[in-house]
Amino acid sequence: MLTISKLNKFYDKTHVLKDVDLSVAQGEVVAIIGPSGSGKSTLLRCINLLEKPESGTLTIDDLTVDVAKISTKQENALRQQTGMVFQHYNLFKNKTALQNITEGLIIGKKMPKAEADAIGLNLLEKVGLREKADSYPAMLSGGQQQRVAIARSLAVKPKVILLDEPTSALDPELVQEVLQVIRSIIDHQTTILLVTHEMSFARDIADRIIFMADGAIVEDGEPEQIFTRPQHQRTQRFLLSYQNDVSGHRP
């Protein structure tokens, strides 16, 4: 479903992503972990072209683009294949929860408002916020705003959902409600890439764990292998700080 080949991204002279190669199967849930500044969020933003890589190829489903020669038409087509959930929600402040979800359907997909509203209300039900349909973001908690953002990402039926540290801006008591919603949307038909610092959650829900450092994928494997038998010293050092968090995580 998703293939990344020789992806490179620079900020001025800083080489942020270094020849990144990654393949993700349809319906696979992949969690990306690693220290701050390792390129995790930049990788997600390059996949849906919020950031423009300098070189490499991206394939989502049957669409392949060379990022150095990409046209506006290709860019829009690729972006329509993904749904993005940001750290800070990125909701329209002047639109209700329902309007935030339906905006992409009505404007982007030219869907009739009644049809879009029906989809939006169904998704709000799915994330446990049906009664907040007419509420504006300022009236919602951080956890509720993020749940609306997740519903919005699902509305366009993307091939790939990208979640960029979706709990990092939340107060600790709100984290679990968002993690539970993420858990509920995993259907093993939609492909999910999740950047997270929630190690126990990543270990529980992911089919694969990717450890990134210094702009490169250092280690890639099944959760049990990465968390109990990491092969690379960088991975071992990183996970030491989370040892207490991941021990005995499974019921």
Automatic annotation (TrEMBL):
<dbReference type="InterPro" id="IPR027417">
    <property type="entry name" value="P-loop_NTPase"/>
</dbReference>
<dbReference type="GO" id="GO:0015424">
    <property type="term" value="F:ABC-type amino acid transporter activity"/>
</dbReference>
<dbReference type="Pfam" id="PF00005">
    <property type="entry name" value="ABC_tran"/>
</dbReference>
<feature type="domain" description="ABC transporter">
    <location>
        <begin position="2"/>
        <end position="239"/>
    </location>
</feature>
<protein>
    <submittedName>
        <fullName>Amino acid ABC transporter ATP-binding protein</fullName>
    </submittedName>
</protein>
<keyword id="KW-0067">ATP-binding</keyword>
<dbReference type="InterPro" id="IPR050086">
    <property type="entry name" value="MetN_ABC_transporter-like"/>
</dbReference>
<comment type="similarity">
    <text>Belongs to the ABC transporter superfamily. Drug exporter-2 (TC 3.A.1.117) family.</text>
</comment>
<dbReference type="InterPro" id="IPR030679">
    <property type="entry name" value="ABC_ATPase_HisP-typ"/>
</dbReference>
<keyword id="KW-0813">Transport</keyword>
<keyword id="KW-1003">Cell membrane</keyword>
<keyword id="KW-0472">Membrane</keyword>
<dbReference type="InterPro" id="IPR003439">
    <property type="entry name" value="ABC_transporter-like_ATP-bd"/>
</dbReference>
<dbReference type="GO" id="GO:0005886">
    <property type="term" value="C:plasma membrane"/>
</dbReference>
<dbReference type="InterPro" id="IPR017871">
    <property type="entry name" value="ABC_transporter-like_CS"/>
</dbReference>
<keyword id="KW-0547">Nucleotide-binding</keyword>
<keyword id="KW-0029">Amino-acid transport</keyword>
<dbReference type="InterPro" id="IPR003593">
    <property type="entry name" value="AAA+_ATPase"/>
</dbReference>
<dbReference type="GO" id="GO:0016887">
    <property type="term" value="F:ATP hydrolysis activity"/>
</dbReference>
<dbReference type="GO" id="GO:0005524">
    <property type="term" value="F:ATP binding"/>
</dbReference>
